[in-house]
Amino acid sequence: MRALFTRLLVICTLLFAGVTGAANADKSAAEKRSLDQILSAGTLRVGVYLLEPNVMQGPNGLVGSEIDIATRVARDLGVKPEFKLYDWPALIPALQKGEIDIISAGMSITPERALQVYFSNPYQSSGISIATNIKLTSEFSNLSDLNNPRVAIGVIGGTVSEQVAREVFDKAAVKTFSEEAKAEDALVKGLLHAYVRSEPVPRFLALRHPAEVDVPISKPLLSTQEAFAVRKGDYDFVNFLNAWIATRTADAWLTSTHRFWFDSLNWQTEVAAPAAQK
Fold first, then answer.
1. What is the pLDDT of residues 150-192, one digit of tens each?
2. Residue 12: per-residue pLDDT
């Protein structure tokens, strides 16, 4: 009996140790870290999302404007960046759970998001625009013609672009996508009349597919301000980021970086073919 009791005690101890070890592993994998802890660890975990030219798959890893920006932030902190890819709706939950320390993904500042995260000051401006399929909209004379139940408009779910599309084109059939490549492909193939997305995506689509895609407006449907997002209560990190933005604006580093990635397609030589993005 004593031998049986001893064996049961050993088994229970091992099981408890396994559970505790798994819990500790989960804790270390998703640890909510302060700025001091980030500095001590020597790494900055950055949440990003695939969207050209912000973040793209290159032949040797991720490249893009947000990769350059977050890499420079990490360098100025004296740490190394660790990039983690997420679908757009998963970015804020990942930040809240402690899987990442910061979101650097061209995230627009909105009151709704500010209830969930702390935003830095804006580091760039953008706007929500629209790309249209030339063949499907050839007989449309103005933007209001798109506001029709027979018109299909694509958006990425959970974005400001979706909010704008549903408000401006409230009678149209708004179709949500989780991946940029699938939405863009649907527009080019004529499965969508239009695609509402932040610049420069519509403009780049028209440049790549001039026979199929057009941008029918010269001004955005909505102007936006984009910022870093960190966990609520992380005052020291926000203070650093605001100081970083002020400094890199003053020395024109942010301006020159934005110009390279947003004002032309010269960066295409640095990335894999768009079709390879998943």
1. 999 999 999 999 999 999 999 999 999 988 999 999 999 999 9
2. 42
Q: Which residues of 203-218 are buried (b: 16+ CB within 10 A; e: fewer)?
A: ebbbeebeebbbbbee
Where does the chain have alpha helices with state H? Answer: 2-29, 35-41, 65-77, 91-97, 111-114, 160-168, 180-188, 201-208, 235-250, 253-262
| The model scores a pTM over 0.85 | no
Residues 145 and 169: their CA atoms lie apart, in Å, by: 9
C-alpha angle 193/162/98, rounded to 5°?
140
Q: Where are the domains of the chain?
A: 34-125+225-276, 127-223
As a whole number of angstroms, the distance between CA 34 and CA 41 comes to 10
Domain 127-223, CATH: 3.40.190.10
Rounded Cα distance between 206 and 203, Å, is 5
Ramachandran sector of residue 152 (left: φ over 0; alpha: ψ -120 to 50; beta: rest):
beta
Closest CA to 56 of 81, 90, 85: 85
- Those residues whose C-beta lies under 8 Å from the C-beta of residue 260, and which sit 6 or more positions away, are 65, 266, 267
User: Looking at domain 34-125+225-276, which of 3.50.80.10, 3.40.190.10, 3.40.50.2300, 2.60.210.10 is its CATH number?
Assistant: 3.40.190.10
**Fold match between 34-125+225-276 and 127-223?**
yes
39 or 31: which leads in pLDDT: 39
pLDDT at 10 over 50: no
Tokens of 96: 């809240």
Instruction: For the chain, give percent helix, strand, coil, nearest 5.
Output: 45, 25, 30
Mean pLDDT of the chain: 88
